[in-house]
Amino acid sequence: MKVKEGKKMNVFLIIGIVVLMGTAAQIFMKRGMNEIGKIQVKDIFFEKFFQVFFNKFVFVGLALYGLTSVFYLTALSMEDVSFVYPLIGMAYILTAVAAWAFFGEKLTLMKMLGILMISAGAYFVVMKL
Fold first, then answer.
1. Which of 10, 102, 113, 126 is the 20 to 30 A CA-CA neighbour of 80?
2. Pairwise CA distance, residues 116 & 129, whole Å
């Protein structure tokens, strides 16, 4: 029984790392895109390709996403995707709070209700029913 509990704690730790790094990646990329300004999809593939992908903040965000994928794959190797993926949704919560803190984005009542629903969903995923 202890081996299984230890395994679950490792999965939770890895998922926590994925959530934190994914949130940080979002914040870095948004910071970079704030510097670049609004663009169209065609811009990324043509005239603004280098400006976007070599912006230091966007670059760090993308690198964090790459590293996050390694941890995510590790979690998937240890647990069912139906368990892991809903918990990764906790990143939505942290990202909304970080966007509010770093960029002054609004946390409306509807956003807060959505955050509560995501939290409840993640709780139900880890519950033993």
1. 113
2. 21
